[in-house]
Amino acid sequence: xxxxxxxxxxxxxxxxxxxxxxxxxxxxxxxxxxxxxxxxxxxxxxxxxxxxxxxxxxxxxxxxxxxxxxxxxxxxxxxxxxxxxxxxxxxxxxxxxxxxxxxx
Length: 104
Fold this sequence. Notes:
This protein is mainly beta. It contains no helices and nine strands. The strands form three sheets. The chain has a five-stranded antiparallel sheet, with no helix packed on it. A two-stranded antiparallel ribbon has the order 3-8.
């Protein structure tokens, strides 16, 4: 197969690594790193312009949201299941603790 029009990439390190950026979207891998353990979380991020999609490929992960207010409120979590798609609506805060690999 001619690979000049197919990029194949992977990431086996710790933490977050964008693999593809294209215009307004990105595909990245997030692997376990200690700073994302629940006891180490200090902030959440909020995507105001688009939803954010997560897929757990392997391992375990709880996906948390922090409400739609300007400050973190109403923290809620869902235990992710491998190979199911989770779409977090724009405007909700999210940290991502304890995962082996998440693609979004």
